[in-house]
Design brief:
The protein contains 5 helices and no strands. By secondary structure, it is mainly α. It has one domain (about 1-120): Up-down Bundle (Four Helix Bundle (Hemerythrin (Met), subunit A)), CATH 1.20.120. It is globular, with a radius of gyration of 14 Å. It starts with a helix and ends with a helix.
Length: about 120
Amino acid sequence: MQNAYNAYAAAARSAQTTASPRELEASLLIKAATRLQGVADDWTGRQTELDGALTYNRKLWTLLVSAVIKEDNPLPVEIKRGVLGLANFVFNHTFKVAAAPAPEQLGVLVSINRDLAAGLRGR
């Protein structure tokens, strides 16, 4: 968790003058999706990379959930519920992939991250 937090904090510091929080979140989601896709595309002998990509993604989603559940978060309740539901799916699916790794199972995590990033960017 500390590595994902450090990456998030470092990206936040370097992006403070140029990127909005939404853009930062979108960039981190794309980074996680890219790592997962890279493992799926070159599956043979990539257990260490798989573990790292799944851990990074899980930690990122943990940080996103932490931000969503803060009392001062201005998002509407419906959106908060949607993000929390998605996070629950991501966590459960991540554990399933870790228990029975298969490259085709990473696609759904990649798609969720990319779709959420696109939404954050207004696309």
